[in-house]
Amino acid sequence: MKHEHLRHNLRAPSGERVRDAGLRARKWMAPGMHIKRWVSVLIVCAFFLAVGFLHFVWTGPMHWVATRWILWLNAVGDPDVLPLWVVGGLVMTLAFAGAIISVVMLNRSMLQATGTKPSEVVDHIYTRRTLARGPHIVTLGGGTGLSNLLAGLKNFSSNITAIVAVSDDGGSSGRLRKDLQMIAPGDLTDCYAALSDSPVLARLLLHRFQRGEGLAGHTFGNLMLATLSEEQGGLAYAMSDVHEVLKVRGQVFPATPMPATLVAHLEDGSQVRGESALQRERAGRRVLRMSLDPVEVPALSEVVRAIDEAELIVIGPGSLLTSLIPAVLVPSVAHAICRSPAKLVYVANIMSEPGETDGLDLEAHERLLSDHLGRTPDWVLVNSAPIGMAVRDRYADEGAHLLSSRGASPAFRSRVRFAPVLREGTGQHDPDKLAAALLRLLTRQK
C-alpha cells in the first residue's frame, strides 16, 4: 500500500524493537558519524587515567590507600580460583562500564529535558553527518512513482531535490486549484510525506477526510499547503517553512510556482485541455505532443540551482504524459537539464498506462520524453525481475501491457541498464531496490 512504510505501529512487537535497536547500533558505527573517534578517545583517556591514578597513589602520600585496597581485594578474592590480576581486571571493567553508563544517562537526561527522544538522536546525527555526504540527486515527475522513489533515496542521501509536476486538475488538487487559483498540491503532499523524518507528520499529511461539507476528499497535507499558499501569497514563498515544519530530508519544489493547464495535441489536430480530461476525451487518438498554457511559466531559482549542482538527474517512474513530461515542459527546467553535465536516467515504467500510452513501446516512451525535453537520457533503467502471470493478467484486465526493450534499435539498447527493481507480487517498483540500483549506476560511472 502507498506509503505503508510511513504508517509505523508504535506498539511494535519485541522482535521488531530488537531489529530497530540493531539498526540504530549500526547507524552509530556508520562512517562520518564522528562517534567512533570520540569513543576511542574516551577509552584511551580512561586507560591513561587509570594508569596515572595508580602511579599517583602508589608513589605519593596516598600509598597507604593503595596498599589497603590491594589487601582488601586479596581478602575478598580467592587466589586459587581467580588470580589477583583477574580480580583487578574485573574491577577495572566494571568501573569503565559504570563510567559509560553514567555518560549515556547524563546525555539522556539532558535530551529529555529539551524534549528530544534519545531514540531519535542517532537518526538525527545519521541524517546530518552521514547522509549529508551522499550524492546530489535531482528527481522529476509526480504521482506514486516519484514519492516511492523518494522513500527509497532518503535512506542513501539527504541531498535530494524533488521537482514535482503541478498540473493535476482532478480530485482534491483540482478543487483547490479552482477555488484558490493555486498550483496543484497533491503530488507535493505525497513527496513531502515520503521525505519527512517524522512518521507522525507523514501519516497526518496523507490523511484523507471522509466526511464534512467542503472537507470530504481533501487530504490534510493538501489543506496545509493551501493554507500556506493563502497566507504567504503562493507556495513559492512558503517552501523553507514547509521543509522546516515537516522535517523533510532533502527538498521538494514545484516545477513551476504558477498555475498552468496541461494541453494534449492530438494527431487529428484537436486539443484536450486538462490532465483529468486526457483519458476521457482522447478516444484512442495518438498524442503528438504536450504543452502548458501559458507556455512560458517560470521556475524557482532553487530548482535551477539544484539541477546545476546535481550529480545524477532521474526522471520517472510515473505516468509519461501527465507526470513526467509536464515536469520538463517548464522552459527553465528543461534548459538546466540540457546543459547539466550530470548523468540523466529515465526510469522506465514496468507497465503501460491504459488510456494514456496505449500502443507505445518502451523506446517510444523514451523518444517522446526526449522530444519534449531536448535531451536523450544517458541511461534507461529497466526492471529485470520476472513478473508473475497473475500480475500480468491483472494488468491486462485493466488494459495495460508489459513494457519491453525487445525489438528496440541498437542505439536505444546501448543505453538500457537492467536491474531487479520489482516489488514482489506487484507491477510496481520497490523503493529500496530502485534507489540502490540508481546509486550503483552512479558509482560505476564515477
From TrEMBL:
GO annotation, biological process: regulation of cell shape
A Pfam family assignment: CofD
Location of the protein in the cell: Cytoplasm
Transmembrane segments: 38-58, 82-106
Domain of life: Bacteria
Keyword presence, Transmembrane helix: yes
Similarity annotation: Belongs to the gluconeogenesis factor family.
Protein name per UniProt: Putative gluconeogenesis factor
Keyword entries, A-Z: Cytoplasm, Membrane, Transmembrane, Transmembrane helix
Gene3D superfamilies: CofD-like domains (3.40.50.10680)
GO cellular component: cytoplasm
Keyword S-adenosyl-L-methionine: no
